[in-house]
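Please, does this match?
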Amino acid sequence: MADSQNQIELKNPAVAAVLGFLIPGAGHFYQGRTFKGAIYCFCILSTFFCGMALGDWKTVYYQSWQGKRNLGYFAQVGVGLPALPALVQNSRFHKQAAPGNLARNDLDAGYFQSQPYQMDLPLEASFEGTLLDRGNDGKTISGALEGTIRLKSIDGEFGPEVRGAFEGTLDGKPIEPLELADPIGIGLPLGGNQRRALECAVIRKEGGQRTDTGHIEGSIPRPFLNWFEMPLSESELDDINKELGKRYEFAVVFTWIAGLLNLLAIWDAFEGPAYGQGDEEEEKPSSDKEPSPATT
């Protein structure tokens, strides 16, 4: 290390290593080694985000629930700041998924909760899904729904109830608003999927009484911070593997490689370049030494 410091000013190696961990190449920029820092920054981050994109942005997460661990995260976290949100998201997910906060303690059963006081109501969101209903004339109505869903909690005869409406299209054609009510199942606010599952009953008036005649089933979008680098359930992992196949495995490996490469970059920022034999500075002859006697 002493020889390398004589040729390249490493400044504070510990600071350079920390900066290099947080952002690939930042330690080298701190030391003034801009070309090498730019190479590390571009290559490592492009590899990492390429893996994220290939895996539909679901490749990086930390899972520590009921004995489950995804050890691959310890390779991914080597890339620094881009992978650190997974630790915060894991903590948020655990607080939400505590048994006392769930209608049923089964994290892989669709994340459904049904009690109004556990749902973030009132709710208004875009909805995509399907309809299966018995119309006013008794004929079956089915097809693809797309539009807006609104839900709210009201005081019913036997306690809180959920009521709402859907407005939009069925198979691309406008339909009359659908009245919605319990039973309602909705995915938890936090999850590894960009969309949140939702299903509820369709209500129509028959003989002067409101009757459950069918149901809608689909999903609403989750905000970015409620799904990015969130832990994936077994069902979500199964779904993404079915959808992406081997591509998902390649995507995960890309993120591993990026994290491990950054460990080498951090070491280079801390220790400096590895010099080979002959790169050392030559010792200058001392002027105090007496000249050797001339030979005749």
About this structure: Confidence is low (pLDDT under 50) at residues 1-5, 102-117. The chain has two domains: 2-84+233-271, 111-226.
